[in-house]
């Protein structure tokens, strides 16, 4: 199942069409303040499946290409990100002073994970807004894993069972001496899309091709088999420090080839089995 969001509506993606299945959300539990942690749709997705299928039968259809897509995850409780999780990216980050800015770039096993502000999350239709044009701002394509069930100090054997699905993630970063969480948490600097695809529709998440172009020029090309710490071990690592909740997003790391983007650029990101999206920079 592929789900997208547009105009604060829920869409079921079928080929190049989107069926408006917003009515299915009426089946979600009703809550009063204080609201529970996490994303309610992702938490209740197994129970919603029948309602989505029923709504699709009479749904209005749209052309996917005509829609301004929002982040498919409306309310992630946190975005957990893996730095330098591809060996060749670690090497380029250590070698390029415009990337490391005299910061020590160490192996992920030493530096651990970091958090991005959820206010940085947008969809591909909203685009990237450069906040500090006087500084270098880079693109980073990543496979984003979306947590489906509460995960607290999980074992490696159980880790993948906690994933609801995947989407493409763009981890945008402004270069500089500050901590990465600050430089990567700028509004619009976490692009998720084009839609959320359930885990059962993704063949082997540890063997997916990634490809990113800027204005048609290839910048990044790799495969998730090259991850230093794989997806299951990232979940083990993250959940050993904090509880992962439904709707939390795990950015698994970017490969080599990161480079600058400027207003007017168009970024196109593709991950096999997951989708492809075009994102404007302004």
Describe the structure.
There is one protein chain. The model has no long low-confidence stretch (mean pLDDT 94). The chain starts with a strand and ends with a strand. The protein folds into two domains: 2-69, no CATH class; 79-280, Fumarylacetoacetate hydrolase, domain 2. It is α+β, with helices and mostly antiparallel strands. The chain is globular. The protein has helices at residues 40-43, 45-56, 87-95, 97-100, 108-111, 156-159, 180-183, 231-239, and strands at residues 2-6, 9-14, 17-20, 61-63, 69-70, 79-81, 114-116, 121-122, 137-139, 141-147, 163-171, 173-174, 190-198, 209-214, 217-223, 249-251, 259-260, 266-271, 275-280.
Q: What letter string, H or E per element, gives the SSE order? A: EEEHHEEEHHHEEEEHEEHEEEHEEEE
What percentage of amino acids are in beta strands? 25-35%
How is the CATH topology of the largest domain named?
A: Fumarylacetoacetate hydrolase, domain 2
Give the second-level CATH assignment, the architecture of the largest domain. Answer: Alpha-Beta Complex
